[in-house]
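Closing statement on the fe (ii) ion sub-project.
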Amino acid sequence: MNERIVVVDDDRMSLRMVRRVFDKAGIEGHYLSCEKEFADFMDGKVVPDMFLLDVHMPDVSGFDLLKRIKTEPLYRNVPVIFLTGDEDVRTETEGLHAGASDFIRKPFAADVLLKRVRNTIELNRLHNNMAHEIRVKTEKLSHAYIQIVQALAASVDAKDKYTHGHSSRVAAYSREIAGRAGFSEEEQDGIYMMGLLHDVGKIGIQDSIINKAGRLTDDEYAAIKTHPAVGSEILGNISDYPELAVGARWHHERFDGKGYPDGLKGEDIPEVARIIAVADTYDAMTSNRSYRNAMEQNKVRAEIERCRGSQFDPRFADIMLQMIDEDTEYRMRED
Ligand SMILES: [Fe+2]
C-alpha cells in the first residue's frame, strides 16, 4: 500500500529531510511550503492519507490549516500530525484539542517519523472501517427489526379470518395522525411500531373465539378483553423498547374513562394509545367482516364524530375527520 501524505513546512531544509525519508519508504509525498500551495492542493480535491503540518510558518499557522481541514467534509477524517520545534506543552495540548492526532518534534529520527506516521494512518483506517461497518450493521439491524415486527403483526392478523392487514393499516393511520399532530419523525416511527403490535395479545386468545360469527358469551367477551394486558406483558419483556407495550395495553381505553383494561381517563391515557384507539376503530369500520362489508364512508365519519370526546380524544378525532374529508374517493380502507 502506497501512502499519500501532504507535508506543509516553510523550512525547505526540513521539507527536504522529510522527503528523503518518505522517498526511501515509498511514500507518495506532496511537499508544500506556503499557504498558497496548500490552498491549491485542497482545491484539487485529492484526499491524502495524512497531513503533516509545521506549527509555525510566516504566512499561516499550522492550527489554521488544521481548522480548514476539519471543516471540509472531504478532508475531515484525514488525520493530522504536527511537526514542531517547540518544547511548549501548551502548543501540544491546544493542537490535540483542535483535532490533531499526534506531534513530532524537530529534529526527528527517520524511523520514529516513519513509525508514527504509519501507526496513525493505520489507526485511522481501522477507525474508518469500523465506523463504516457499524453503520452498515445498524441499518441492517433496524431493517430486520421492522421486518420481524411486521411478521409478528401479520401472524396475529392471520388468526382472524376477517382482519387481514389490520395491524399494518392501524400502524399507517396512527403514523399519519401523529404526523399531522406535530410528532417528530422519530416519534412517528415509534407510533408506527406500536400500531403494528397493538393487538399482539390476541396470540393468547383461542381462534374459535376470535372468529366467532355470532354473539359472544360473557366468558368469551371476557377472554377477548384480556388481550391488552397479555400484549403488554409480552412486549414488556423487550426491555430495550419499553414503549412498545404502551399501545398494546391502552388502545381500548376511552377518553371518558369507560374503557379497559385500566379505565384510564382523558390525558391519563398515553397520547400514543389515544391515537391508536382512533385508528383502530376507524379500521374496524372500514374493513370487511363476516357479517358485513366495509361501512359507507359517511357513516364512518358520523360515528367518529359521534364518539369525539367520549370514546376518542377530540384532538385526534378531529384529525381523523380531516383525513376522511380529504379522502374524497374513499381509498383509506381495506381493499
Ligand atoms: Fe385490540
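The chain is about 55% helix and 5% strand. With this model delivered, the sub-project is considered complete and its resources will be redirected to Aim 3.
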